[in-house]
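Async update (no meeting this week)

Hi team, since we skipped the sync, here's where things stand on the single-chain job. The sequence we agreed to prioritize is pasted below, unchanged from the tracker. I ran it this morning and attached the output directly underneath so nobody has to dig for it. Comments welcome in thread, and please keep replies under the output.
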Amino acid sequence: MTLTELPITSLAAIANGLILLLLTYKVIVLRRRDGVVLGDNDDREMIKAIRGQANAAEQIPLAIILLALIELQSGNVIILGVLAAALTTGRVMHALYFGIHGTNWRLRFYGMLLTLFAQAGLLLALLVTVAF
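Output:
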């Protein structure tokens, strides 16, 4: 199997992997700045950064797996592309809230809403792909 056999999944994995990498980098920077090896040092900015990274690590893998399963089974590429774009847009919005201290909470809310919409759409698309 090559990268070109799963182009939508591959592009989504690259984009969302970069998001996770940047969120991880933010946590590392804060830990080094404050000398925190384990935990959050009761620092609100660090707590927020850790949760943003953790949420991305919780949400992204399942979505990428769903994308791949649909794409491998020749699911509708237009729907797949729209859902991959919605997922990535939602993850960017969510990451901006958690990665940049002081940003508006609406980025978190709408980013998560878009992420959940994309995941629900992916589940439905996989069901349709498998059933029909």
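Quick observations from my side:
Residues 3-131 form a domain with the Four Helix Bundle (Hemerythrin (Met), subunit A) fold (CATH 1.20.120.550).
Helices lie at 7-34, 44-72, 77-99, 105-131.
Reply here if anything looks off.
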